[in-house]
Amino acid sequence: MADIIDELNERGYIEQQTNEEELRKQLAKESTVFYIGVDPTADSMHIGHFVALMVASRLQKAGHRPIILMGGGTATIGDPSGRTDMRQMLTREQLDHNVECIKKQAERFVSFEGDNAAIIVNNADWLLGLNYIEFMKEIGTQFSVNKMLAAECYKARLETGLTFFEMGYMLLQSYDFWYLNQKYNCKLQIGGNDQWSNIIGGVELVRKMGQEEAFGLTFKLLTTAEGKKMGKTQKGALWLNPDKTSPYEFYQYWRNIGDTEVRKVLSLLTFLPNEEVDRLSSLKDQEINEAKKIAAFEITKIIHGEEEAIKARDAAEALFGEGGNIENMPTTEVPADVSILDAIVLTNIAPSKGQAKTLIAQGGITLNDEKVTDITYHLSDKDFENGYAILKKGKKVFHKLVK
């Protein structure tokens, strides 16, 4: 089988892995079952899950079999990794709803047909019925508290407070790996680099309980050149659900990435060949914008399909005078005679009237390509002569207003 580890390294995915030499041998000799976990803390995955799903897709294309594990049980606790406080507890009904929504999104990345067809499981099926005493006797005795407290996912919480409830998360995630190993012969867990401690816990549990080799692999988190997580927008997270982040907004996010982020985005979030990634990443000055357009189109196509990607691209080109149409621009219905300040807040261009006033004072707001200078201005029929009005902040953020 193809050396998928080399492929993942060439694309820049891999951050850490256990026993690289043996993992290479395992993946080269046979189709290997691997799993990736998604805790359904919301009714949609966000851009932070994107890299994980791309790795899962590439592993499956290389002949390996993915298990997409829905954390309907572990999400009852919530992973403390990267948190300064305890996660909000969700009801069973909320978790079940979120699981069903996320399942549909996962289907865009992995195939459920063929010899290595993907499997979707929910750890609520085996975690919720566990007997506490028996679980702690069988699983809890395999973990050292001293070692757990030294893990990165817990260290950051020791000063602010860490509940025993949250400490149990590592045991449950590790038990997931052991359970999947026993039922599906799963030998590899993959996840973001912030999951390294939890993944190591599972690898060691499988080795202790099953006396067989197990592996862990983490990939790089999607960050900007400054080291900040990508996917944060004015409205919050960049969601994969079109009802939470429209295909147009999704497209525009990638269209507006920094020049230094083009290579990373093309490598990690598209299936373009390495040669094309190299070519596009080497473009300079104004030409790099063409690379950004291609990246935005390819990524939007993966998440929302080619038709929606074309609509988003056309809408963007229409705004900047490059042809196309504006039917798919972000649209907000506003009352008749709405004030300019209210329009800015209603479209989420600014979160408050105070910030809206500041934007106007700085010359950052235009209405139908005319700079707005009067903070008391109210829109009238003449602003909607074409059936809509275009409200813009700067050159990149805009909304279509309709009455």
What can you tell me about this protein's structure?
- This protein is an alpha/beta fold.
- The chain has three domains: about 5-220, 3-Layer(aba) Sandwich (Rossmann fold), CATH 3.40.50.620; about 230-320, Tyrosyl-Transfer RNA Synthetase, CATH 1.10.240.10; about 330-400, Roll (Structural Genomics Hypothetical 15.5 Kd Protein In mrcA-pckA Intergenic Region, Chain A).
- About 45% of the residues lie in helices and about 15% in strands.
- The protein is built from 17 helices and 13 strands.
- It has helices at about 5-10, 20-30, 50-60, 90-105, 125, 130-140, 145-150, 150-155, 165-185, 195-210, 245-255, 260-270, 275-280, 290-305, 305-320, 340-345, 355-360, and strands at about 15, 35-40, 65-70, 120, 185-190, 215-220, 230-235, 235, 330-335, 365, 370, 390-395, 395-400.
- The strands form three sheets. The protein has a six-stranded mixed β-sheet with strand order 1-6-5-2-3-4, sandwiched between helices.
- A hairpin with a 2-residue loop joins strand 10 and strand 11.
- The radius of gyration is 24 Å and the shape is globular.
- Residues about 80-85 have low confidence and may be disordered.
